Amino acid sequence: MKFVDEFRDGDLARRLCSEIDRLSRGQSLKIMEICGGHTHTIYKHGIEDVLPPNIDMVHGPGCPVCVLPMGRIDDAIAIARQPGVIFVTFGDMMRVPGSKSSLLDARAEGADVRFVYSPLDALKIAHQNPDKQVVFFAIGFETTAPSTAVTLLRAQAEKIKNFSVFCNHVLVIPAIQAILDSPDMRLDGFLGPGHVCMVIGMRPFAFVARDYRKPVVLSGFEPLDIIQSVYMTVKQLDEGRREVENQYARVVRPEGNLKALEAMEKTMEGRPFFEWRGLGFISHSALKLRPEFAEWDAEKRFEVPGIRVADPPACQCGEVLKGAIKPWECKVFGTACTPETPIGTCMVSSEGACAAYFNYGRFSLAAQRNRLPVIDLTAPTGANLKDS
Amino acid sequence: MCLGIPGQIIEFVDDQNNLARVEVSGVKRNVNVSLLRGEIGPGDWVLIHVGFAMSKLDEREAQETLKLLYEMGRAYQDELLMLEKSQLE
Predict the structure, then answer these.
(1) For burial by CB atoms within 10 Å, which of A156, A201, A314, B65 has the most?
(2) Chain B residues touching residue A171 (CB < 8 angstroms)
(3) What are chain A's domains?
(4) What is the value of pTM for the model shown?
């Protein structure tokens, strides 16, 4: 595929890492990659193993599946169980556990739950099933919200009456602000979510550099993109600069995609507050449909329980999502909680830090734990041996 | 969820619904191009997310990034070669 091979040059990666090593001069630096897509690349390609050990990649809350609180999953299941409803979702959401069951369980019990690639597929299902109510489970950050918006505009233009959207779109900027304001957080810089930036542009990140004095590098998703972005972050720190830089210029325009923002503006508005798993309630951090689109708003069309549900006590997804602990430090990681039987959302989505670590990282960690030390300090010394 | 894949526009197939046929690694599919209307044409590369072309992939920028990366690699390599030649006493 175009540009993919070039952005995976191993020799180049190692040389870049030497530069990072030189510029960081052994200082312990914590850099948060906000986006789950970056977390996935980091684990899949073992980037943590090639970066100097003083560079600590902290995984942020940028996986829309992972940050959705359990209560919203329960609401989705309640809609899916209504008679005459076809509930349509992205595949990642099927196995996410609600307080009692998942959408997959609801389907096994007779609900018509289908998964699709695009919201436009959901609209097509509505066309094909005029006697059913088709509800699309809209999740995702600013990357995905425009596609829901365009689908809504088309539903409006075509006067489709049996289609609605259960809107759970969330916004990345308020989440970054919440992390920056969190007292237990010590971060030295951020890798910005490339595909969110492709929609919203560079300007919304300016406050991070200006007010919080942290470098932000908007980053692509290939291994070399991430390593180069770490290099650019470390270089800013070394030179005393605090800026928003664009490593992903082949995709991200400084102004973003204005047509996408316009479609969002026409169809959606901010919610006063929204609950995030791990981060709690964050004001103005999510989107709902505008009153003009009430006809296509599933929250207006269907009764939803809307009950807040606490996470299971064993689950530490919240701490993982804030970057406070690493996936393998969770009590149930890899034992009670696996991709086959997930307890928390971070183990369900392929972009969740736990699933990414479970799928790509655990064996090297196991090897590390069992690794024979170079100098075994517990072994008897030569002198002792001679004496005995 | 936030994955994007590069694809090449083959042709526009439905102007009213803003659909274009794209090729992604040999697979041909229709995607919605309304968010890049007027900015792209056949032969252009775009980034596709959940059935929508979201951004025109800028080939010049991609080459620039690669050039920068390779040059940085070379500069460091040259530095190492110089160091190897150095005979400080």
Answers:
(1) B65
(2) none
(3) 66-171+256-301 (3.40.50.11740)
(4) 0.88
